[in-house]
Amino acid sequence: MADEVVPTWEEIARSYGRFLYTVAYRLTGNNDDAQDLVQDVLLRVRKGLGSYRPGSMEGWLSRIATNAFLDDVRRRRRRPLELLPDEPDRVTPPARAADVDLEAQVLPDDVQAALRRLPPEYRSAVVLSDVVGLSYQEISEALDVPVGTVRSRLHRGRAMLKKDLA
Amino acid sequence: MSAAEHLGDLLSALADGELTSFEAAAAQTHVTQCSVCAAELDDVTTARAFVRGLPQLDPPFGFYERVLRHDRRLAAAGTGWKGRRVAAAAFGSAAAAVVLLGLAPPRDTPVSPPVNSLVEAHATGASFGGDPLSRLAPIGVPVTFRR
Lengths: 166, 147
Known about the structure:
The structure holds 2 protein chains of 2 kinds.
Chain A: H1 9-15, H2 17-28, H3 31-48, H4 57-78, H5 102-105, H6 108-116, H7 120-132, H8 136-143, H9 147-165
Chain B: H1 10-15, H2 21-33, H3 35-52, H4 63-76, H5 81-103, H6 115-128, H7 132-136, H8 141-145
Helix pairs in contact in B: 2-3
């Protein structure tokens, strides 16, 4: 059955490259870190291709990407290093006029900047849910945390995003 | 209604369809009666819509080609990441050796050129050469070689 054929590393890079880069960018918030993360994911993919079970390739890739991202976050916490986003002026968006409809004015860059300001654990849950589209159970397995923790991180992350963008 | 009775993170689960039908029905009933939870549900669904509305992104031009090319080069050279670490260690050792050699004090190597035999050979050649200058050489021969 064609679905059961394990793809090669190159096929994954070519077929899911855009998806993978998008997830990496949403997690890291800047181009350089996103490229580093994608390369890290591809290395992990190559090492782990033997353990791949045919199913949702996107779910598998995003799981690897999120774990690689969180591993990097933990490393940086041990060796603090403050990184600036691509465009620092986006960190503090200008004040909005009170009478302008919020949804009409929020731009993708604003959302990305707000996403980047979330704690990494909340950001991971939000990206896996709202960018990748995983269920709570799948996120729980990907992050190796209980479903209740996923629900809590997701809810708090969304609440913080909304407050940040208000 | 006290804050302890608000639904909190169950609201996201409600929005995501992650509650059982019984739980969802109870939560919906609560939201219709609680303005705090209704507002919070609106907030999280709005935030969710923002993130879901983000576009897919294209990686920089040629990014994957560069990654694949780099990987093929490593494979052709028979060096994976571990191999590269070994190669780096070998390079480091070689570099250290060069530095040590460079820092070591120069040694004087004794040189003993065969001066006497060279002089003798020259004098002999000059004595019997046919050129005008060589004809002058025998003048010095008795002084140098016939003690």
